[in-house]
Design brief:
about 140 residues, alpha+beta, Nucleoside Triphosphate Pyrophosphohydrolase, eight-stranded mixed β-sheet, 8 strands, globular
């Protein structure tokens, strides 16, 4: 765990918690490109875009979804990002709920990732970041 005075050493990312109600609440996760772990779509902040809008762009690129994204984050979670150079970079990601309206058949990273719907309880078990799991459960009412 990182010491509080080292918090500023963490890089910042934005993430989308993609969900739908059909009729029960479901969470859409994608696999990471390198490790194939189940994750939320996420990426670096984008110049000229507010964080929630950048999270929506990541959701489109990584999961092929369009929807309504909340302007306010429901919390943050930490993880270690493995870069292509194999360097490990500590990251804090702000999580923005995104209600999926359109699930596209084709999207920019389709051949690089899998996507799947999970119940909030299933999603919380399958993600590896404990704080992300807590945020998913809290969002799902559990």
């Amino acid at each position: 765990m990182i010491e509080p005075d080292q918090e500023s050493l963490r890089d910042r990312q934005v993430a989308a918690l993609c969900y739908r109600k059909s009729p029960r609440l479901e969470i859409l996760l994608v696999t990471s490109r390198e490790t194939r772990r189940w994750v939320t779509p996420k990426g670096w902040p984008m110049k000229g875009r507010r964080d929630h809008a950048a999270a929506a762009v990541e959701a489109f690129e990584e999961a092929g979804v369009d929807g309504v994204v909340a302007e306010k984050s429901i919390g943050t979670f930490d993880y270690d990002k493995v870069l292509k150079t194999t360097e490990i970079r500590p990251v804090t990601a702000a999580l923005f709920p995104l209600e999926v309206i359109v699930l596209r058949e084709d999207w920019p990273e389709k051949g690089q990732r899998d996507r799947r719907w999970f119940t909030p309880a299933e999603a919380a078990v399958i993600v590896q970041e404990p704080k992300l799991a807590q945020l998913i459960l809290a969002f799902g009412g559990g």
